[in-house]
Amino acid sequence: MRNVAVIGVGQSKFARRPDASIREIAFEAFKEAVEDAQITREEIQASLVCSATHYDKQRTPAGIIAEYLGLNPQPTFNVEAVCASSGVGVRIGWSFINSGLHDIVAVVGFQKMTELSSAEVQEVMGRSGDVMWESPFGTTMPAYFALYAQSHMQKHGTTQEQMAKVAVKNHFYATKNPKAMFQEEITIEDVLKSRIIASPLKRYDCCANSDGAACLILASEDVAAKIADKPVWVAGLGLASSPMTLTGRDTSYDSFDCTVEAAKQAYRMAGVGPDDVDLAEVHDCFTITEILNYEDLGFCERGQGGKLVEEEQTYLGGKIPVNIDGGLLAKGHPVGATGASQIRTLVKQLRGEAGATQVEEAKVGLAHNLGGIGMYCAVTILKT
Predict the structure, then answer these.
(1) What is the residue-averaged pLDDT of the chain?
(2) 4-11 vs 376-383, strand pairing mode
(3) In the chain, what percentage of residues exceed pLDDT 90?
(4) Does the annotation mark 54 as catalytic?
(5) 23 and 168 belong to one structural domain
(6) Catalytic residue among 152, 171, 283, 333
(7) Pick from 188, 293, 298, 372: CA 20 to 30 A from residue 68's CA?
(8) How far apart are CA 150 and CA 176, in angstroms?
(9) Active site includes 333?
């Protein structure tokens, strides 16, 4: 296998963006990534445009975005795996380079969600579940994840205060990230007093709809050696799936099987374990999800995720800093952009460019990108 590096990263501001179309938001991230990689767009041999469907009217958005970015006549591909779209896109880009087909590939993740109302977004997201047997009965995303929260609380004693601590942490670190959607700190009391969305999940337990894009430039080892000052290597990749219907899963609803499996694959390929990871970006679409991810990724024992954040072991300076760019809860979750944004954060950290949130001597980073109700999971491990 050929070694593959991330040689350039870029991201737009995550926010409500009525000022820009999907192609303009994608261009902001793409321009930053190309400049970071110190290449021209003509050197990019293929592009992967990653997003979830039904948030805007454009079919096959890869075509319109590749045109706007000036990437024709190179091949472009549309990648869709709901919230895990750009995490999956990284794996495909890595495969293109390893196959020898291409030496430089752009992965562009984007989403423009705020042109729809919150009710419309929930209806679209609800269709990530089975449209015959589940979503017609009101299983929106908050409802799905509330079931996991209730199960984890019942089985392991996880408290609403511990879940609230996740939101407090991630909002705190978002204030140090100029690309983040929310720029104000909150308290545990703020979370507990916020409006109930799907019990026990409250407003601050849930991520917000957002617009934004993130871009990664991947390159073969030969190319990276010539042009990259600080290449960050894709050391491990894991990708797994679970049944779409909850009733099709052999689970107790306190874990995501696809995360466990994808993590095993990525750790094995990278030749590391959970204790070797210096920081992680995990998919915290809801506060309970981050707690489940701690456990599924092996950062603590089963049932100890709430305690891990309560003791601030997932803060900067703790055992395993997690989502110290604000995570989905506070940085924002434009779903197609999330996986690429997570990897952008890790690349900045591993190059020592993270400023106020820099993890000292960070050498190994893990990105965890979940799709839908745990239907897909992409885990990517990066090394310096």
Answers:
(1) 95
(2) unpaired
(3) 87
(4) no
(5) no
(6) 333
(7) 372
(8) 32
(9) yes
